[in-house]
Amino acid sequence: MGHYSKAQCHDCGEVYEEHIGGSFTSQGLKCDKCGKTMEIHCHDIPELSIQLLGYEDYCAVARILPDKNSRDRKKLKRISLEEFNRGVEEFAGKCDCGGKYTFDAPPRCPKCCSTNIKEVGSKLFYD
Ligand SMILES: [Zn+2]
Ligand SMILES: [Zn+2]
After folding, report:
1. What pLDDT, on a 0 to 100 scale, did the predictor assign at position 75?
2. Among 17, 24, 89, 124, which residue has the least CB neighbours within 10 Å?
3. What is the Å distance from ligand 1's center to 29 Cα?
4. Where are the beta strands (DSSP E) in the chain?
5. CA of 55 to the centre of ligand 2 (A)
6. What is the DSSP string of 98-118?
7. Using the 8-state DSSP alphabet, how is residue 77 labeled?
8. Could you state, in order of their start, the residue ranges of all structural domains in the chain?
């Protein structure tokens, strides 16, 4: 579960909605240089998702029917969330600006790319 939070840029005064946290079905990454966001869905990274969740849980999350004969069932080398995140970052690759998509990028103003941001307003929960 994630939420939206209103944030304001100290440098240019822009007020925008910041998307915080991810959900089970998609991963939100950000460029560490320009702050551009990228969503990666669990359908895009089935092998990593299966290694993190296990095959049955992956099928439930991805809303697909488990295939009893799938070879993916046997690939149950479990990985930690940290390994999963690293794999997702690798999958996401590089941004057009030369930066790297990562889970650890600081929030940035969408207008001037400043990291001088404060949260304002209430949170709107979703998912
Ligand atoms: Zn700004
Ligand atoms: Zn970038």
Report:
1. 56
2. 124
3. 20
4. 2-9, 15-20, 26-31, 37-41, 101-102, 117-126
5. 33
6. S-BEESSPPP--TTT----EE
7. -
8. 2-126
Whose atoms come closest to the Cα of 105: which ligand?
2
d(CA 109, CA 9): 6
Ligand 1 midpoint to CA 36 (Å):
14
Residue with tokens 């304001």: 8
4-55 pLDDT, tens digit per residue, is 788 899 999 999 887 665 555 777 898 998 888 898 988 899 999 999 998 8
Number of Cβ within 10 Å of residue 119's Cβ equals: 13
Give the residues across from 101 on adjacent strands.
Answer: 31
The CA 101 to ligand 2 mean position distance, Å, reads: 8
